[in-house]
Design brief:
about 200 residues, mainly alpha, Methane Monooxygenase Hydroxylase, Chain G, domain 1, three-stranded antiparallel sheet, 7 helices, 3 strands, about 5% strand, globular
């Protein structure tokens, strides 16, 4: 049985709204790294609405696997950002269970990889997102932006505001269908699997 207890957050991260802003910043920064447009962020413990949610490229199982893998990476992104900024993550947020379910689903559809292999690979992709210094450095300023929106009574942040802030902090998105950092890493992995 798992006995470790998550450490309690301190400082600004002790404020649940601020901690949620950090978590949501992680989701949005991960989406940007994958080249996805963020359509909106609602300050609830779930990933933002992104263009990838609306697009299933083709009518194949591989395109479904890609969507599910992207969702896992986004879920990891919230926890990783929270770990970097707050020194702990929301171990009870439900993301771990969601990621586990999605990895098992991907494994069942894929038929060639087990769920744990998929889990560790997708976690590695998400960690590479935050290994990029510009992305890592954007966690707190972007969280401050989201926190200010919530404090001003705007818990749903429109995509155009999110995208403008991400452009300012990280770099402008290259456009629809662009291949971000995480997407390039994933495509190399998929190419090796096909060979």
């Amino acid at each position: 049985m798992y006995e470790d207890v998550c450490p309690l957050p301190r400082g600004r991260c002790a404020d649940l709204n601020y901690r949620l802003a950090v978590y949501e910043a992680g989701h949005a920064l991960t989406a940007r790294a994958m080249g996805h447009e963020v359509l909106a962020i609602t300050m609830l413990p779930r990933p933002p609405l992104m263009e990838s949610d609306k697009i299933l490229r083709g009518n194949t199982l591989n395109s479904l696997i890609e969507v599910l893998e992207n969702r896992c990476i986004e879920l990891f992104g919230g926890q990783i950002a929270e770990q970097h900024a707050c020194g702990t993550n929301s171990c009870c947020s439900g993301d771990v269970a969601r990621i586990d379910e999605l990895c098992r689903l991907i494994s069942g559809i894929d038929g060639t990889r087990d769920a744990e292999t998929i889990w560790f690979h997708l976690e590695e992709v998400a960690e590479k997102v935050f290994a990029d210094q510009k992305t890592h450095d954007a966690i707190l300023p972007f969280a401050e932006f989201l926190f200010a929106e919530v404090e001003a009574g705007r818990p749903k942040v429109p995509g155009h505001l999110v995208e403008a802030k991400l452009d300012e902090l990280v770099a402008p998105r290259k456009g629809a269908g662009s291949r971000g950092l995480a997407a390039r890493f994933l495509s190399k992995r998929r190419a090796r699997q096909s060979a």
